[in-house]
Amino acid sequence: MRLTILGGGGFRVPLVYGALLGDRAEGRVSQVTLYDEDPARLTAMARVLRDQAAAASAADPTVDAPTVTVTGELDEALRGADFVFSAIRVGGLEGRAADERIALAEGVLGQETVGAGGIAYGLRTVPVAREIARRIARHAPEAWVINFTNPAGLVTEAMAEVLGRRVIGICDSPVGLGRRIARVLGARPQDAWIDYVGLNHLGWVRGLRVGGRDELPRLLADTEALESFEEGRLFGAEWLRSLGAIPNEYLHYYYFNRDTVRAYQEAEQTRGAFLRDQQRGFYAEAARAGAPAGAALAAWDRTRAEREATYMAENREAAGAPEREESDLESGGYEKVALALMRAIARDERATLILNVPNGSTLSVLDAEAVIEVPCLVDANGAHPMGVAPLPLHAVGLVTAVKAVEREILAAAASGSRTDAVKAFALHPLIDSVGVARRLLDGYAAAHPGLAHLR
């Protein structure tokens, strides 16, 4: 099979390639095409993957590493692809840093998928994602598209306008949360059924069944166990018991908004600025001519370790939580979800995965085309959302409000209407003023050339 990765110079590409190196089954990926508009990033990433393949072969001579090709031509990258991973970042990390800075100056959250930052990122990304979807439909109509691009639910919904159910969004947050809960309860993650429902970066684990028995009440009753893993330390046992559920970590931005905004304002630099500076150093080192074999991979490993250790550091500071523990840093996230999804479709090996897919009739409070994040049964015909219990009212309020914002982003990206864009900002639960919404849009339009028409 042939896999094309859009955003092939992106930092997390080696996670995907590393997962492919461990795949020994028939029908595996034999060719990987990396597409990126930045030749320097492509060069650096190709070196990291070359080092990965060499290290894997040295450890096990039977490893048959997928061939890697690189290109800056989108249509060329798409032709003949069986699967397309979309992992683009419109505006790069410089754009993310600007999104955060502009929002914080107005006293609101600028995180890349939540609040003002997520809206700005969506307005930039949706037009590009729609064009990519059209190009895929033209040059690789039989390909399955797995969307990693944030905001993942919104972008998946935009691409589904063209590709229908052949595009599926993924995120590793629900998988990581379910895995941590299962381990605290003494269960193997693969033996647990996770009752998870919501939107991307806005969902809750409402039950975890092992052998048909829901073990979540046992966890909620045990304060020590509840605060022994990342989400428990972020939210605190008392709040989790009041919810009767374990929220996705991104809900910390909603439930503790003022605390988080203050922590971000007081930080030396925003997360986007940190990653921008960190990755500049990595790409320069990885692309350096004459570096010894293995140097690019070693640089990537060091950079990734620092990146993971500092993830959501401001939220932990706001919550008074300690540094991330070793179990929270463990890999096995979105790259393994992507590989499991690809295997299930390509080999018709049924799997149950938490994915971003059109709602259908799953949640009655949303229409059929609204992309939601829920457990799905996956087979050769794609991903099929499984039935879930209705949302409690507090969750209905957040889910429907944020979905309304996403719809305004989709409308504004299609129409170029300032009115639609202002409405997207003003309706978000974390933006408390139409006046602030207008100033935010003006700030983003001034910072990003692609949004200048919205001023």
Task: Supply the number of helical segments.
Answer: 21
Radius of gyration: 21 Å
Q: Would you report the number of β strands?
A: 13
What separation lies between the terminal Cα atoms?
A: 46 Å
What share of the residues lie within helices? 40-55%
The helix/strand class is alpha/beta
Unreliable parts: none
Major sheet: order of its strands? Answer: 3-2-1-4-5-6
Question: Biggest sheet, in brief?
Answer: 6 strands, parallel
Portion in beta strands: 5-15%
Mean model confidence by pLDDT: 93
Shape: globular
How would you portray this structure in words?
By secondary structure, the protein is an alpha/beta fold. The chain has helices spanning 13-21, 39-59, 74-78, 92-105, 115-139, 152-163, 173-184, 216-220, 223-226, 230-235, 237-243, 252-255, 257-266, 271-286, 295-309, 313-319, 326-329, 334-347, 393-415, 418-427, 434-447, and strands at 2-6, 31-35, 67-71, 83-86, 144-147, 167-169, 192-199, 202-210, 213-214, 246-247, 351-358, 371-379, 382-385. Helix 2 packs across helix 14 and helix 4 (92-105) runs antiparallel to helix 21 (434-447). The termini are far apart. The model has no long low-confidence stretch (mean pLDDT 93).
